[in-house]
Amino acid sequence: MSSSADLPRKDRKIKPSALCELCHGRKAVMKRPKNLQKLCKECFFLVFETEIHNTITSAKLFQKGEKVAIGASGGKDSTVLASILKTLNERYEYGLELVLLSIDEGIKGYRDDSLATVKRNQQQYEMELEIVSYKELYDWLMDEIVSCAGIRSSCTYCGVLRRQALDRGAAKLGIHHVVTGHNADDMAETVLMNILRGDTARLENSCSILTQSSGSPIKRSKPFKYSYQKEIVLYAHYKKLDYFSTECTYAPEAFRGTARELLKGLGAIRPSCIMDIIYSGEHFVLAQKKKVTKSYKNGRDKKAATAEDEQEINPDGSVALKTTKRDGNTCEKCGYITSNKICKACVLLAGLEASRAKASVDGSEEGAAKLGKTLELLSF
Amino acid sequence: MSSGPVTYLPLDTDDQCQRCKEKRAVLLSRKEKFCPDCFVFFMRGKQRKLMLDERYKVKYGQVADRLGVQKVLLPLSYGASSLVLLDMVASLLQEQNLAHKGKQGFELVVVHLKEPNLSGNASDNSETDSDFASGGKKFKELALQYSPVNIEYHEVDIEGAVLTAAMKITVNNQFGVIALPSSSDEAEKRTIGDALRACATRSLQEDLLSLMKNELIRGLSLKTGCKTIIYGHSMTRLANEVISLTVKGRGLTIHESVINKSIEYNQQELQVIFPLRDILKAEVIAILLFNEALQKFLLPDAKPGSRLAKNMTVRDLTTQYFDNLDATGYASTASTVVKTAEKLAGPKEPQQGTCDVCGSSIHHQPQKWLSDITVSIAAPLTTEDEEEYARQYGTSEGSAEGKELRVCYGCTVTLAGSGKQFEWPMRATAQEIIDEFVLTDDEDEGP
Ligand SMILES: [Zn+2]
Ligand SMILES: [Zn+2]
Ligand SMILES: [Zn+2]
Ligand SMILES: [Zn+2]
Ligand SMILES: [Zn+2]
């Protein structure tokens, strides 16, 4: 098209090829990571938000009047989640009462800054905020745990303890539904890991959007299940959202690291691959087994068994503990809902106590090293 | 030499083979030291175990009457795995032939699909592929080793096959796959190779090519009267395939793509077997290393390592991934992945039909799933300038009208990524290629 007279007067005319591929009226500012579509900011916001709305409605995630806690770390996933849920709650009249629920693990520097972010979010989004600290729940600070168990195993802790902390915090507030910022990249990675590790128990339900541990009154869901990590970053960037950029500083375990690298490479040549992996993962079906599996034997229904299985995947993706399961009841030590005699948090904490005692007696590193070893055994 | 699953022992080793306790050991595999002969024998045992069914044995009397003459199709790429499988199977037939006075358990049919050159330069790969497969000359030389076994051989040139049932395929914003017949004279000159080269990325080309090959091989087995297809895939390659299929959104087909099973194809029962499924890629290479006569037929494959990162395919990356796992002590992953795949079944939901592109069965319409999470709606335009731009734009492009196809998730995504107005044949084309290129009489050499 030539510069015809009926075009709007502007400093520079936008070439048709530079226009947003959806509205054709504004200049495209970004290539959408999911499908490389060139979009303007406004269209990107709309499609990104609508996709999350679609995810929520097709899974019937919320009920009118429900009180929902947003697991808020101050990081980008949970900050974007809070912002979007507020937007959607108003736009589509979900009728939700949204509360920010934050865990203070007691990591110096990292947590202080991120909690400050959550507190600002509370003002910005006008939501109630509840902070639950490790110290008050477990009588341990994450820094103490790390110095006691070593950096390598700390992801096991941050998975198990944080999950329980969120549940307990929610229970304290009388809330039965916690939403977390787990995104599509996390989902796809989990699907790949389950195949690579041969974890058939988790294969069929690794992509469930809503999970609930047996006996637990707390539901957990992942409205970002189909949202790409990169798009969450872009959304936060263009919306100028206030978030704390450091994620969990403990590196993933080595084997998971290889899967993460593979996924990164695949994403570069096939942008749809994250969705594609989730599609595959959602449709995996196990052949009928010849013998009855452990989880069926107790007479628990299938749904409860798989939800319990899901619980073992830590939020940051580390390997979780595998222990023999019992019927859903409460932990002998702390009263928290668990399918074991003693809940995972208490198992971990008991180990820590033992090594703290030992370390103070011989004043050596031995205690910590031994605990690290024990944990590795437990993890596999 | 490597820390992988096969370790080659130094040439001056004093270690003896733990099997025959006579010859010097040359390698360490599965915690045992082997001489070359014992290693190959051990590996052949794994292949034979997977072909124990009576239909592959020498048959007499009633069994022979019931099963008739069995024919087995072996797709040969001249890569390490398919060469090793050919050698194992042909040697088995040779043994049978000599021991049973000319009787064999089955007739072997070998098919070579000449792959199109996808580098963009049509004359580029002619020396590599055609040297190896020039009207079957090379194969005749190779087959001599197994005399008196007679092996039927066919070559199909995918590159030059003409796109007869070509459709311009467009994927609309709701992920509907629309087929627009292309004008006939335009299509006549275009080949499969042309179509593939027009595809947006190498990764998508690879996906489409493998669908085409899969369809061709199944079709060829019917055409040549084979009721069994044996693939040379090693365990490593199968694990690779499981991950690739998952990554391409084709996880639903894993249970029929990597597992020994009988499938139904055009109302006929077909056995699909992977006789090297218990052998690792490193072991396949070791077998080839001990067989000089076979080695010289190996078609060197293009090294993915030399490729730019963005030109890699899904299979390049997953191959690299498993190679790295081998080198870093996670070699058992391949076996874990294959075992996991063996536990998978087909979808629970009833079948709604078959994919118009790849032929796999469809149990869910992927369009709703896709359009829910990849929305194509525009935010309202707010200024006059914006509306003017949109008006101008609107006149420059019309919307596609045509027949909506039934297409599986994997094909929908691949076609959506292949570019606007991408041209790809319907499934029926494979049958036409087969009819055009394959002559059923044994003595014919092809076109
Ligand atoms: Zn736009
Ligand atoms: Zn962590
Ligand atoms: Zn407890
Ligand atoms: Zn020996
Ligand atoms: Zn298909």
Automatic annotation (TrEMBL), chain A:
**Entry-linked Pfam families:** ATP_bind_3, zn-ribbon_14
- Residues forming the tRNA(Ile)-lysidine/2-thiocytidine synthase N-terminal domain are 67-252
Q: What class of enzyme is it?
A: transferase
Q: What is its main location?
A: cytoplasm
- In the Enzyme Commission scheme, what number(s) does this protein have? 2.7.7.-
Q: Which GO terms describe its molecular function?
A: ATP binding; nucleotidyltransferase activity; tRNA binding
Residue ranges annotated for the Cytoplasmic tRNA 2-thiolation protein 1 C-terminal domain, each copy included: 329-359
Q: Which UniProt keywords apply?
A: ATP-binding, Cytoplasm, Nucleotide-binding, RNA-binding, Transferase, tRNA processing, tRNA-binding
> Which GO terms are recorded in the biological process aspect for this UniProt protein?
protein urmylation; tRNA wobble position uridine thiolation
Keyword tRNA-binding found: yes
Query: Which parts form a coiled-coil structure per UniProt?
Result: none
The pathway entry for this protein reads as: tRNA modification; 5-methoxycarbonylmethyl-2-thiouridine-tRNA biosynthesis
For this record, the Gene Ontology CC terms, alphabetical, are: cytosolic tRNA wobble base thiouridylase complex; mitochondrion
Q: Please verify whether the record's keywords include Nucleotide-binding.
A: yes
InterPro entries for the chain: CTU1-like_ATP-bd, CTU1_C, Ncs6/Tuc1/Ctu1, Rossmann-like_a/b/a_fold, TilS/TtcA_N, tRNA_thiolation_TtcA_Ctu1, UPF0021_CS
Q: Which domain of life is it from?
A: Eukaryota
Q: Where does ATP bind?
A: G71, A72, S73, D77, I103, G181, D186
Q: Where in the cell is it found?
A: Cytoplasm
What this chain does, per the record? Plays a central role in 2-thiolation of mcm(5)S(2)U at tRNA wobble positions of tRNA(Lys), tRNA(Glu) and tRNA(Gln). Directly binds tRNAs and probably acts by catalyzing adenylation of tRNAs, an intermediate required for 2-thiolation. It is unclear whether it acts as a sulfurtransferase that transfers sulfur from thiocarboxylated URM1 onto the uridine of tRNAs at wobble position. Prior mcm(5) tRNA modification by the elongator complex is required for 2-thiolation. May also be involved in protein urmylation.
Sequence similarity: Belongs to the TtcA family. CTU1/NCS6/ATPBD3 subfamily.
State the protein's name: Cytoplasmic tRNA 2-thiolation protein 1
Question: What is the species of this protein?
Answer: Australozyma saopauloensis
Recall the taxonomic lineage recorded for the source organism: Eukaryota, Fungi, Dikarya, Ascomycota, Saccharomycotina
TrEMBL record, chain B:
Name of the gene this protein is made from: NCS2
Listed Pfam families: CTU2
Q: Does the keyword tRNA processing apply?
A: yes
Q: What is its pathway?
A: tRNA modification; 5-methoxycarbonylmethyl-2-thiouridine-tRNA biosynthesis
UniProt keywords (A-Z) are: Cytoplasm, tRNA processing
Family listed: Belongs to the CTU2/NCS2 family.
Q: Which residues cross the membrane?
A: none
Q: What is its main location?
A: cytoplasm
> Which InterPro entries does the protein's record reference?
CTU2 (IPR019407), Rossmann-like_a/b/a_fold (IPR014729)
Q: Name one GO biological process term.
A: tRNA wobble position uridine thiolation
Protein name according to UniProt: Cytoplasmic tRNA 2-thiolation protein 2
How is this protein annotated for GO cellular component? cytosol
Q: Which residues form a coiled coil?
A: none
Q: Which Gene3D superfamilies match?
A: HUPs (3.40.50.620)
Report the protein's function: Plays a central role in 2-thiolation of mcm(5)S(2)U at tRNA wobble positions of tRNA(Lys), tRNA(Glu) and tRNA(Gln). May act by forming a heterodimer with NCS6 that ligates sulfur from thiocarboxylated URM1 onto the uridine of tRNAs at wobble position. Prior mcm(5) tRNA modification by the elongator complex is required for 2-thiolation. May also be involved in protein urmylation.
Matching SUPFAM superfamilies = Adenine nucleotide alpha hydrolases-like
Q: Which GO terms describe its molecular function?
A: nucleotidyltransferase activity; sulfurtransferase activity; tRNA binding
Where does it reside? Cytoplasm
